[in-house]
């Protein structure tokens, strides 16, 4: 018995113990997917699978194109990854390349997202003085928390942004504690977030502003903090030049279709209706939030400024995410909110991070917190039991959500006439004499992305400025389906598409008429897209509302080559980004080596 106890103690004290805990919890959370050998098809699955399939094929074939989607999205040459988490897209593409099929990929990528979330929260807690055991507990709660788990059950990329967001708050909370800006920590944290999910980075920056203001007011070295802040901004811009530099270039020279305007923002808030308490903030998570709020309010005078500031910011963003805010009225007054914010529930990621952090700090520093204090029984065992109860109920809610998605996918695999559980999605598998079972389980990953299509029009080029006022009249989803998807099957013989080693795309088709005819080709054109038809550079005869090109095709065989001109400006952008990351990593390694040498 003593040997067993000593072995358990060794494992618990091991530096790999957190990985063991988080890994086991992740496998348990995903057990339904693993045991049923299936995946979940949800709101954004098809969109992100196409992004990752494109980068996987780029890596496999060595035909790289940072801008054009030459493999995904039916090889239309549209821009997606360059504007949407480019680095993560290539990492996910590499993982997809190593995965046997889409099922394995979804399980692996979901587990990795959960592990990143757990370790980033664990690290944030440790930096803020939370004990090791409570840090592991907070990491465990966060990895299965609603803000991260939306990736697992819905493939919403906000879940991936939530997984890395605690890394940014490490530098921000250190700044609050020490009243000076850790330039590298803040810059790297924000850069990682921007490279992952721009919307999440904007939310995190908004949450950091009041913390920065408090730090600036309290510090005695105000000018040094301002100077360090400016250095951190410049360094962050350099580390993310490939994101914002490319965005400026593309948006400056093109009209792009934005994300759809959410006309009922009030419905997508933290509230007590079914969808919200199942997937946005679950009841036991809300209880944690309320407990921390109660604790901070009742002990306000005794608490230090760090806890007060973090608690206030967390509470403020919790309110922002709820239907307490008159979002219906605000979206009428400020229509831009319908595309910029879309879903107020996104703000809830900040309370998840800060309230879980505060709970860890409270439990570490107050032995009477979350105990049977009225009975004079400050037992840690009771605290752990309470937290386990919260964890178990959250896990149960996650199981229910996963099982719903699993049951829908199993039904698809068993019945090829099943309805796809995704809005604006269409099935074309019967055109290729394939089944849903083959789409999901085949090692040929092209089956799924070519058979099940979602008509997401985000970032497609258009001939006019599209906003919340005229979005519906442009009909982006309908036009995408008609002009870039269905149109592939309309012409005799169809279009044959081939990706070249230089990253360009060649489209071949036949004009079976005896005269030159106009053909709408299922590729899109941006201002920097270069079109070469039958060896001659051309301008399209017409551009559709979703950027599809119409060209004059000669009788017989026609060959159209589509490429994207980058130029010197883009070369500078990628060079600055690469050198900035190399410089940062080099500096960190040299500094660690010097510190290690001085400690010997």
Shape: globular
The whole-number mean of residue pLDDT values reads: 91
Largest sheet: 5 strands, antiparallel
Helical content class: 55-70%
Number of helix segments?
A: 25
Low-confidence stretches: none
Report on the structure:
- The chain has 600 residues and is an alpha+beta fold.
- Among the domains are: 19-155 and 417-450, no CATH class; 159-256 and 567-599, no CATH class; 491-565, Sandwich (Immunoglobulin-like), CATH 2.60.40.
- 59% of the residues lie in helices and 9% in strands.
- The protein has 25 helices and 12 strands.
- The chain has helices spanning 2-13, 17-29, 31-35, 45-61, 86-98, 102-127, 132-143, 146-154, 158-178, 183-196, 198-218, 222-239, 241-253, 274-280, 283-298, 305-320, 327-333, 337-340, 349-365, 380-414, 436-441, 446-451, 471-474, 476-485, 567-599, and strands at residues 255-256, 425-427, 452-454, 461-462, 496-499, 505-511, 517-524, 529-533, 536-538, 542-543, 548-553, 556-564.
- The strands form 4 sheets. It has a 5-stranded antiparallel sheet, with no helix packed on it. A 3-stranded antiparallel sheet has the order 7-11-10. Strands 1-4 form a two-stranded antiparallel sheet.
- Helix 4 crosses helix 5 and helix 13 runs antiparallel to helix 25.
- The relative contact order is 0.11.
- The chain crosses the membrane at residues 16-35, 79-98, 103-124, 136-153, 160-177, 197-218, 230-251, 280-297, 309-327, 347-365, 377-395, 572-590.
- This is Cell division protein.
- It comes from Apilactobacillus waqarii.
- Keywords: Membrane, Transmembrane, Transmembrane helix.
